[in-house]
Amino acid sequence: MNFRSFYLSVLLGLAAILTGCSSDGVPRIFTNEYGAVTDAGYKLPSVPVDKIPSKYHRQVVSYKTDEKPGTIIVDTKEKFLYLVMEGGKAMRYGIGVGRQGFEWSGTARVAMKREWPTWTPPAEMIKRQPELAKWRGGMPPGLSNPLGARALYLFNKNGDTGYRLHGTPEWHSIGKAMSSGCIRLLNQDIIDLYDRVKVGAKVIVQ
Prior knowledge:
This protein is an alpha+beta fold and 206 residues long. Helices cover 16% and strands 33% of the residues. It has helices at residues 3-19, 123-128, 187-196, and strands spanning 28-29, 37-39, 42-44, 59-62, 72-75, 80-84, 89-94, 97-98, 106-115, 150-156, 159-168, 177-179, 183-186, 202-205.
C-alpha cells in the first residue's frame, strides 16, 4: 500500500468513527452527536468532547448478557451505562455516579419518564445544604436544573427509590463519582437514552 492509499484509508476510518458507521461489526462511536441542540425551546450548548475520554462517548459495543434487549445495566465501577440491544450488542454511555458514601446498587424499573423535569431536593439534601431550601417546592426546568433535559425515575418493590437516571450540564463529571447517588449522563446522551427506553424497563445497578 502506498502512502496515498494509506492516508485515504485512515481518513475513511476516521470518518466512519465520527459518523458512527461501521461495516464490520466493530464498535460505532457517536462523537459527532454532541453539538448544540435546541430541544423544547431550550438551547443546549455543545459538549467539549475533546475534553472527555473517548471511551465515555456514546457508542455501540459488543456486550454479552442473559438480560433481554431493553434492559439497562449500570456499571458503577467502570462508569458505563449499557442499554442491551439485539444481537449481542449494547449502546454504551459514559456516566457520573454517586460519590463515596452515596453509592448504591440493586434492581429497579423505569416507572416514569419526564422531559425537562422539575427537580425537588430531598429533605436530607436540604439538611446538608440549607441553601437548597428555596427549591423545597421544586426547581423549574431549565439549563441549570440538576436533572437536565430528561429524567428516568427508578422504582422497586418498595416504591420510589429516590434515584434517577438523568441529564447534567456538568460534562466534567462524566467518568467520575460526584453525585448524591443518581446516575447522570450528558444531556445529549440522556435524550438519546430516553427515546430508546420504555416505561417498565428493568434497570440493574451494580
